[in-house]
UniProtKB/TrEMBL annotation:
Name of protein: Aste57867_21658 protein
Biased composition (Basic residues): 204-219
This protein's record includes keyword ATP-binding: no
Keyword Membrane appears in the UniProt entry: no
Name of the gene: Aste57867_21658
Entry similarity comment: Belongs to the CCDC43 family.
Amino acid sequence: MATSFETWLCSRLEELSIDSEVYGEYVSGIIADPDSDLADRCATAVDVLRAVAGDEAALDTMAGELEQKWIEQEKELEQKKIQELEASKLRLLAEKEEELKLVEINKQKEAEKAQARLHMSKEELAQRDKILREYGSVGDSEMDEDGNVIVRAQKTEDLGAVNTNRTQGKVAEQAMREKMKKEHDAKVKREKELLEADRLRKDKSAKRTQKREKQRGCG
């Protein structure tokens, strides 16, 4: 897409009876070169055009026109960049606000669920626990706004996942039972050791007492 400067230049060259397709791009390339002063670039471009212009006098103001139009385009491009940057900032801000809204909504939903569970009766809690045990882990999508479990008909391909949950639950329960048994056995063993140590201490104390009594009797 042609820039505003290129559009103007092509029109201006046509007015001067200069081939815009050939010299339009050439002149634009000279003026776009940032390695020299803009006024010098415009003067160089005009010198090129003088070689092909039928009326050189018509080019007397061309250098000033080129410089003015180029500066106008630079300002337009700069303004466009600023507008795009502002639009990007506004878009990011809107996205951030939307994310914060979703976070607040989720927090509110969780708080409502927790509050609802606090007001559930013992029967409701028992029923909820029963369903959880039967169907394994239940996600938020399977609970209503009050924290009640929603039992949905499962597809055949989902049964494997349910069975996996049950198996994992059984394995976890078995591991927990074994751990509790080990802890219980260790506790019993420790208590026996303490009782035995206490018995030995008492025996020694009794023997020392008997020994002292015998010594006093002999005296």
